[in-house]
């Protein structure tokens, strides 16, 4: 005899199903009917836990946000240097995308950009928090002379986030034919090397 789920367990099950289906079907084809079929409950049962489909999407965003921020906090708690932490933050982000491949699809979906202002605001806030975290580490690296100080830390952070976003899109379009985290580490190393070389060049100029 199947065990009865608590309300919290059922909500979590619905969110997990929504993420799986967003990957398999695409966010714009996701309906409460297909979620109900995936979970194995009736459609009215879905609405007992979430009043609207938009509410399900907001719960999905909260789930992604909680996992991302936990990964960032874990990196920031490590006794690493700022450049190393930047690499670890980017790797953590790419690992989460590999584990949750629906994320790129959600970011480019009509659901996020047109139909659900709350979902768009949640993801915009999440991107902003990631940007602030990266920019903070860039400032530390600049202060320690490990990265060029000639470029605004916010701009460097935007470039590094653009690497993550562009790589995630290429990974998705290629049907995940390469390791996202490994490719990200390779390309990030190129960018960080160039930024470090600029810093070294600037230091040499100051000494002349």
From TrEMBL:
This chain belongs to the protein called: AcrR family transcriptional regulator
- A GO molecular-function term, please? transcription cis-regulatory region binding
Asked whether the UniProt record includes Transcription among its keywords, one would answer yes
The keyword DNA-binding belongs to this UniProt entry's keyword annotation: yes
Q: Which domain of life is it from?
A: Bacteria
- In its UniProt entry, the species of origin is given as Amaricoccus macauensis
State the InterPro entries in the record: DNA-bd_HTH_TetR-type_CS, Homeodomain-like_sf, HTH-type_TetR-like_transc_reg, HTH_TetR, Tet_transcr_reg_TetR-rel_C_sf, TetR_C
- Database matches in PANTHER family: HTH-TYPE TRANSCRIPTIONAL REGULATOR ACRR (PTHR30055:SF240), HTH-TYPE TRANSCRIPTIONAL REGULATOR RUTR (PTHR30055)
Any one Pfam family here would be: TetR_C_13
Locate the DNA-binding region by residue range.
Answer: 31-50
Alphabetically sorted, this entry's keywords are: DNA-binding, Transcription, Transcription regulation
> Where is the HTH tetR-type domain positioned along the sequence?
8-68
